Amino acid sequence: MATTEWIFWDNDGVLVDTEDLYFQASAELLSETGVKLSREQFIEISLRRGESVFDLAEGDKPYLDSLRERRNRRYAELLAQGVAPIAGVAETLRALHGRVRMAIVTSSHRDHFDLIHQGTGLMGYFDFILTREDYRHTKPHPEPYLTAIARCAGDPARCLVVEDSQRGLKAAVAAGLRCLVIPGDLNRHSDFSTAHAILQGISEVPAYLR
Questions:
Q1: Which of 47, 83, 176, 181 could pair with 195 in a Cys bridge, judged by C-beta atoms 3.0 to 4.6 Å apart?
Q2: What is the pTM of this model?
Q3: How many structural domains are present in the chain?
Q4: 96 to each of 90, 110, 204, how far by Cα in Å?
Q5: Do 106 and 61 have their domain in common?
Q6: Rounded to whole angstroms, how far apart are CA atoms 59 and 135?
Q7: Is the pLDDT of residue 186 over 90?
Q8: E strands within the chain?
Q9: 40: buried, middle or exposed (CB in 10 Å: 19+, 13-18, 0-12)?
């Protein structure tokens, strides 16, 4: 196995526990259309397929776009109340810092990302951050990770991805990258058969590299 020189981290569900807040904001806005969004629907549509749950609602494009915008504002309100790193994240990043170079590759918009990390104290560990504005196609399309490879000018064989979702895994594999998966509660029963390894928690990442 080639020595790992770069780790590309997913953000939501790997570094911070925000996916339930995104589900909450989406469910609140969809309820106005008469759609009762279940956790199972959210998991299948958003976390596995990488599609929009607002496709469940009826209406023309301007109306659905307005719902998404209001959802994004509601999500920002929830994030502004404070988001803490998942247990073990800070210690793991500290242990890896200086051993490998690291970046975040996320589907989050930059304004949401900045709200999430305004108080986490994690940003100093990363060489660069890629958010939704940095690519045309989001996960499960490989473009986010292909963009990361181009940005660091790294050898794909020496790059490693850490993800929590089926759509994130699919994006990494399609980009030709090894991917470790740390399933969260929302992703526990997804198909991770193409993962390089499935870990129980983020604290296992340094030992895996050894």
A1: 181
A2: 0.93
A3: 2
A4: 10, 25, 11
A5: no
A6: 27
A7: no
A8: 6-9, 101-105, 128-130, 159-163, 178-181, 197-198
A9: exposed
